[in-house]
Structures are given as structure tokens and as C-alpha cells.
Amino acid sequence: xxxxxxxxxxxxxxxxxxxxxxxxxxxxxxxxxxxxxxxxxxxxxxxxxxxxxxxxxxxxxxxxxxxxxxxxxxxxxxxxxxxxxxxxxxxxxxxxxxxxxxxxxxxxxxxxxxxxxxxxxxxxxxxxxxxxxxxxxxxxxxxxxxxxxxxxxxxxxxxxxxxxxxxxxxxxxxxxxxxxxxxxxxxxxxxxxxxxxxxxxxxxxxxxxxxxxxxxxxxxxxxxxxxxxxxxxxxxxxxxxxxxxxxxxxxxxxxxxxx
Length: 259
Ligand SMILES: [Zn+2]
Prior knowledge:
binds zinc ion; eight-stranded parallel β-sheet; alpha/beta; 9 helices
């Protein structure tokens, strides 16, 4: 099966089409969904949906771009939430150096504290890092975080990729590589080893080339995988098998005590 390692299938946008979309995904062979949390007030809904849909797995955390309604005290609840909801990771967490995001000092406080929670629980993390790879790596080093995880929507250089790989991470490859002009991303993808990446859509965001303006869904995993196969001169079945193996290596709790 194909696994979407990063989709926001819990968002309201999907509320009235989630069941039918799930059926279409399963029929198409997209049968695993890792859904990372964004804000504290969405944790319970994510937990409910994860117990309803047996193909879902969840990570809990506070997304760096949506911190304005969050409190550092929310992090005191994170460990309990992960345990009671059988989280397979902590996320999505990180640093977002983008207009509109809260102050970077505050983001770093949220990020490092959540890294310590993940470290204490021995859980991998789902990293959101926008224009912040060096700072994110610095935080990983300073917290001594070596449980790995995924770098969501990786779009850096091969050198930056290698530094995350050295920390035990794999790179999330998504819709960006479907754009013909994404030459650098294509070059990096081609140079990666078979063990270095997983598939993701970031649904409902990050539409594919030729689908701009439409709601992205986990069904896009099939198109992304086909593009990866073409760029790496492999067949899609090999991409399916290796990304599945990579995901299970990084998230060993995938088949453990699901809800
Ligand atoms: Zn996301």
C-alpha cells in the first residue's frame, strides 16, 4: 500500500466528504494516513477520527505557524495526549520563518520544549521547517534529539538533506516535484538514496502542478509517486515498496497498539 506521511485529513474542509474520499483512497491503494496535529484545540477531533478510521495514525503537537492561540502550558499536556491517544510521533513542530509567524524566539521555546517531550517519550517528530533548516538543526543538536522523524516538504540542497539524514530523519517528498520548473528539487531527489525519503501530500494544501486552485487530497500520492519514479528512473512499484519500508522504519509504532 501507499502511505501519505503528512496529510491534514482532520480539517473541516474534509468533514462532508471524508468517508467517500477514504473509500476512493483505499480503492486506489492509498491505505495509510499519518495526520499531524496543528493546534491544541484540534487534538480531540484528531483523536476521535483516528479511533474511527483504522488506516489513520496521528502525531500530536503545536504547529509553529499557528502558535498565536497557543500557550507554553499546552506543552505540559502534550505527553499525556500522546500516550492516551497512542501517538506514533510528535508533530508537526518546528520553526517557520515566514511573514505572519510569531516571533522566532518564542517559536524556538515551543519547538525545543516539544522536542524534549518527544525525547522523553522516545517518539520521532514531524518537522515543519520553512526557511529555517540551520536553526532547526541547531535545536536538534542542542536538545540531543536523535529519534529522527520526517522533514515535511523538504526543499533544501543535497548538503542540507545529508545533515538531516545524519540526524536519523527522512525527507518528505510531495507535490513540489510535480512542477517542471523545480529543477533543484529534481536533482536532489535523484541523488538521494532509496532509504532517504517518504511520500506526502500536505492535503488540503500544496496542490500539484496542473491542479492549482483545487483542494489537494491524499489521492495525489499516486501522481507524486509516479513523478518520483520518472525522475529516479525507477518503477512506481519500487517507489511504493521503499517508501513504505522507510515510513515503518521511522515510525516503528505504526502497527503497535492502534486505537
Ligand atoms: Zn502540515
